[in-house]
Recover the amino acids of this structure.
């Protein structure tokens, strides 16, 4: 049978079900949020890596001429090489809903046996039947096609109609919806039959050891390159992707950073709630604690009772853990489907489960420990006579004295103010709960606003509307004059373009990046210069990096000489400036005059930037069609054309997971913050039941009491709003900078979402009225006698 | 059970205070609530403390019960010097040695009457778990309310609650009972019942120290100690002492 003291614990729980429900809820919300975030984190990080590694991703990709099978065998037999495979890829366009999208057709030699960047059959036929293609599963919606449909594509200015025979899963390409690309797969025989010439010019290799070591991979790739060149092949470029890292790893990591950040803050919030309710609970029990001590209860025994109680609450709250885990699994599978990878196992890693249990038990216990310590520390005398209270008496501190000088305020409100500031410990807790809740809510919205603002800012600095890529270099003047003669076009500027790579001191080329060559004085872009300057009109071999490219070469500084390979020539360039170009891939800019000289493509250009007269979406679609029509008869082949709407959509699709997470985090903070508000306000009033009785005994009417209590609630609420509004600005600024660095390698253009402030103000106002009115109402129903006998 | 035995020797002086002083720190400076108290109480004595409100009665009782500490002087109760004991040691000692009875009963509201009586045994690890219930019922029988054993305290009258409190004070069979205005909240009739109970307990060998304002206390109490401004004004037995002390009563 249970001993009397433990029976007391259970009966007290029964007698205080409201408060107990609040603590258990608070712990449960904490447990759910931790369970949720750590579970999705645990599953995603394991599965993304496992999934990706399982496809045996290439360590390096070498681009060369067509290659013969026996060469591959020799490479495979090298001791530093695990495997090698060749493939081919053709870039074209696909006609979807009246516009052209980018289309990439991959050709593998043996679909039954893909060894590097393995392909996994999904639906329909596999391997691709003769004359038909397969589509990457995530690209089906971008192609707006189903299995059995036919798609219209254009390759090398020829149009083809291709039946879709099935889908497959290729983790080696980024999610199609984010790039607005369609990835398709066909056999060499199909291409032959279509009359398309295909070169197997991509050699993918995996290294035998240290597959995660980028330097090692680069060295191996260099050796292979040397050997190939000694065999008479030309290696145009070598690409070493971040080893064993899925193309979307950094989106994932940014998201995880936000997830764990918000998760831990929500947890802190719930911990404060626990502290709050427990301290209210213990202060109600002070007399009983004193009596227990007076009849021989030791402090350890009494502390044990309350610790036991909290553990019981934790155990109850732990029942909510599955909710968090399920939410985590759902989130993980949602993100997995967005990022186009499979979740093989939804089990939560053991260490994460352990962490969840430890946090679910330890944090509430820690949060309750101070109130328990304080509550069980009072001496019997302090608790049983009334002298002990004199220490917190109003008037003892400067602030109180100032407050009592306030004139011209209604009496009840003045009383509310004094009440508010009397219980400092309580006030600090209430404040921090409300302020953290509000800060989280507004911060989530601010960070989202900053992300969107950064994209706005980027487009503010870009003054062209359509960017056209041509399959070849054509005379620049001709490109410009054809475009300007087109309806809806007001200006056009031809830019040189090429792919560049930095050659290091050992002669090894790094990853390639796009080099754009606008006229130095171009009016079409004015990127923010972070360091150095923009291009000048002089012949100088000056190069400007965008911040994303600099991030790959963090050691480079403005003024440094770099060796750049561009259009198969290697020359020395000077880094003259760094520009910030939000959400752009790594890019470099050189002046068109330098480009002409460096590439001998004098007067030629492959890219055309077009300015239209109208800038709305419909006009841009029309202008693109007009441009297609203008260039079609000239024989100049367009590879792609992208309006600023299209490219903006692609950027927004890359961050949509994060922006929607932020909205969700805001909603969650609203719930937890609201819960916190109700709890703290409610316990505030409960703690003062005795005082309410005294006030009623001296003749305060129910109305006056309600006004005092609700007034106090509203004052606390408004002050907390003010505090949160002040804190949130630097807080969300810091978060936005961190997020910008991890997601876009640059800080975000900070923006504040004003409606967040307004909504939170409304929430605080409404909730603090409700939360203080309810207990005030029930206190009003107690008789004076009840209240004074209240323990 | 009739006499208090320590180390096999019957103790005559069960409570002994020498030069006890109690000062409180207040915002207005030091306030001396007890000054130079010398007092010794014998086993089986029924002593009553009287005095005006604020004269230091509760302070004196609290110091004897180990609830409060003297700022100077020596306090020996039940053969133990309280001066050197920690809070924890005091709690253990109190559980065994002193039963405390309060003016406002102070029963734990969520425990039944019987459970309230069992609680000190639980804390003090007195008796085996299974014997505690029986002892609680015996004690409740003794104070005449065994019929209410399974009710919650708030359903009982004040007099009944105070009798539960007495049963609780007796739970661990302490040699000393300390009661601060135990009848202060009771009507004359129920006060009578409680005081009769005290007399009976003294006859069984308990030592009782009680603060009270009851008028005819000298008929039961062996000894009257009257306080004024933290000093012992009168200390003795019988009619004369009471007469002398009467003006000091509130
Ligand atoms: N914690 C305290 N702080 C300051 N003064 C106190 C404290 N406790 C008691 N006193 C003062 O000590 C004096 C004696 O108190 P008390 O022993 O409670 O008197 P009584 O029980 O005789 O009415 C009173 O004047 C009271 O104001
Ligand atoms: Mg008193």
């Amino acid at each position: 049978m249970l001993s009397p003291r433990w029976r007391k614990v259970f009966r007290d729980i029964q007698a205080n079900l409201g408060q107990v429900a609040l603590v258990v809820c608070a712990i449960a919300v904490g447990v759910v949020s931790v369970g949720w975030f750590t579970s999705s984190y645990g599953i995603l990080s394991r599965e993304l890596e496992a999934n990706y590694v399982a496809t045996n991703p290439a360590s390096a990709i070498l681009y060369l001429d067509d290659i013969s099978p026996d060469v591959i065998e020799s490479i495979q037999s090298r001791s530093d090489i695990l495997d090698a495979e060749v493939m081919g890829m053709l870039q074209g366009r696909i006609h979807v809903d009246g516009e052209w999208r980018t289309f990439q057709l991959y050709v593998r030699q043996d679909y039954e046996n893909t060894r590097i960047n393995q392909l996994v059959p999904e639906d329909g036929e596999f391997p691709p039947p003769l004359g038909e293609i397969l589509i990457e599963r995530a690209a089906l919606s971008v192609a707006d096609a189903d299995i059995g449909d036919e798609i219209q594509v254009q390759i090398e200015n020829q149009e083809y109609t291709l039946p879709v025979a099935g889908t497959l899963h290729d983790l080696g390409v980024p999610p199609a919806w984010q790039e607005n690309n369609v990835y398709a797969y066909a056999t060499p025989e199909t291409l032959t039959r279509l009359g398309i010439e295909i070169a197997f010019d991509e050699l993918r290799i995996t290294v035998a050891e240290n597959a995660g070591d980028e330097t090692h991979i680069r060295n191996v790739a260099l050796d292979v390159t040397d050997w190939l060149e000694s065999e008479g092949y030309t290696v145009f470029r070598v690409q070493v992707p971040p080893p064993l890292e899925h193309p979307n790893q950094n989106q994932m990591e940014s998201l995880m950073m936000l997830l764990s950040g918000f998760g831990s803050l929500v947890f802190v919030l719930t911990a404060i709630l626990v502290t709050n309710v427990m301290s209210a609970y213990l202060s109600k029990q002070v007399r009983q604690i004193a009596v227990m001590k007076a009849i021989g209860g030791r402090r350890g025994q009494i502390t044990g009772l309350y610790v036991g109680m909290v553990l019981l609450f934790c155990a109850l709250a732990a029942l909510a853990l599955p909710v968090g885990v399920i939410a985590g699994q759902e989130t993980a599978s949602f993100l997995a489907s967005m990022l186009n990878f499979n979740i093989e196992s939804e089990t939560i890693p053991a260490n994460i489960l352990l962490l969840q249990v430890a946090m679910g038990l330890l944090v509430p216990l820690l949060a309750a420990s101070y109130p328990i310590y304080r509550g069980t520390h009072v001496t019997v005398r302090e608790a049983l006579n009334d002298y002990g209270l004199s220490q917190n008496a109003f008037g003892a501190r400067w602030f109180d004295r100032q407050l009592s000088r306030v004139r011209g305020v209604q009496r009840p409100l003045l009383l509310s103010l004094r009440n508010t500031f009397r219980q400092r410990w309580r006030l600090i807790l209430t404040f921090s709960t409300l302020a953290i809740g509000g800060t989280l809510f507004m911060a989530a919205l601010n960070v989202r606003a900053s992300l969107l603002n950064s994209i706005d800012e980027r487009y503010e600095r870009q003054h062209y509307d359509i960017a056209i890529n041509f399959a070849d270099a054509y005379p620049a003047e001709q490109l410009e004059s054809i475009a300007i003669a087109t309806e809806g076009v007001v200006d056009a500027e031809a830019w040189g373009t090429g792919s560049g790579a930095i050659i290091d001191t050992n002669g090894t080329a790094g990853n390639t990046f796009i080099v754009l060559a606008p006229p130095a004085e171009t009016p079409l872009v004015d990127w923010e210069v972070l360091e150095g300057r923009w291009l000048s009109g002089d012949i100088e071999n000056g190069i400007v990096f965008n911040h994303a490219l600099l991030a790959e070469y963090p050691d480079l500084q403005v003024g440094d000489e770099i060796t750049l390979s561009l259009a198969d020539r290697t020359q020395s360039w000077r880094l003259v400036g760094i520009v910030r170009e939000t959400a752009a891939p790594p890019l470099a800019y050189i002046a068109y005059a330098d480009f002409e000289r460096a590439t001998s493509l004098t007067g030629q250009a492959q890219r055309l930037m077009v300015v239209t007269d109208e800038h709305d979406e419909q006009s841009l679609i029309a202008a693109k069609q007009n441009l297609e029509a203008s260039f079609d008869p000239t024989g100049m082949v367009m590879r792609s054309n992208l309006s600023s709407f299209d490219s903006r959509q692609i950027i927004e699709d890359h961050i949509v997971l994060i922006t929607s997470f932020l909205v969700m985090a805001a909603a969650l903070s609203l719930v937890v913050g609201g819960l916190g508000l109700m709890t703290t306000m409610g316990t505030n009033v409960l703690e003062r039941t005795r005082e309410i009785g005294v006030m009623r005994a001296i003749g305060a009417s129910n109305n006056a009491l309600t006004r005092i209590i609700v007034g106090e609630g509203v004052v606390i609420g408004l002050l907390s709003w003010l505090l949160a509004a002040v804190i949130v600005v630097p807080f969300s600024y810091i978060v936005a900078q961190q997020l910008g660095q991890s997601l876009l390698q640059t800080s975000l253009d900070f923006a504040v979402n004003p409606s967040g402030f307004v909504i939170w103000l409304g929430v605080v106002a409404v909730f603090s009225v409700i939360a203080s009115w309810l207990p005030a109402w029930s206190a009003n129903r107690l008789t004076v006698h009840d209240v004074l006998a209240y323990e | 059970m009739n006499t208090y035995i320590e180390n096999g020797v019957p103790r005559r002086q069960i409570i002994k205070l020498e030069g006890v002083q109690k000062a409180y720190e207040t915002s207005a400076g030091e306030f001396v609530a007890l000054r130079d108290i010398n007092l010794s109480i014998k086993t089986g004595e029924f002593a009553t403390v009287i005095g005006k409100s604020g004269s230091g009665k509760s302070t004196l009782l609290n110091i004897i019960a180990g609830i409060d500490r003297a700022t100077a002087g020596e306090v020996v109760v039940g053969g133990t010097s309280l001066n050197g004991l920690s809070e924890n040691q005091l709690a253990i000692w109190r559980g065994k040695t002193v039963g405390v009875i309060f003016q406002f009963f102070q029963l734990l509201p969520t425990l039944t009457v019987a459970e309230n009586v069992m609680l000190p045994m639980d804390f003090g690890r007195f008796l085996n778990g299974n014997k505690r219930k029986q002892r609680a019922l015996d004690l409740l029988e003794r104070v005449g309310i065994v019929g209410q054993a399974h009710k919650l305290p708030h359903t009982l009258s004040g007099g009944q609650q105070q009798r539960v409190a007495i049963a609780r004070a007796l739970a661990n069979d302490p040699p000393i009972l300390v009661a601060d205005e135990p009848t202060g909240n009771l009507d004359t009739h129920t006060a009578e019942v409680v005081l009769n109970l005290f007399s009976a307990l003294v006859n069984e060998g308990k030592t009782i120290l009680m603060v009270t304002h009851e008028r005819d206390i000298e008929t039961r109490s062996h000894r009257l100690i009257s306080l004024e401004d933290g000093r012992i004004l009168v200390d003795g037995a019988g009619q004369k002492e009471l007469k002398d002390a009467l003006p000091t009563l509130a």
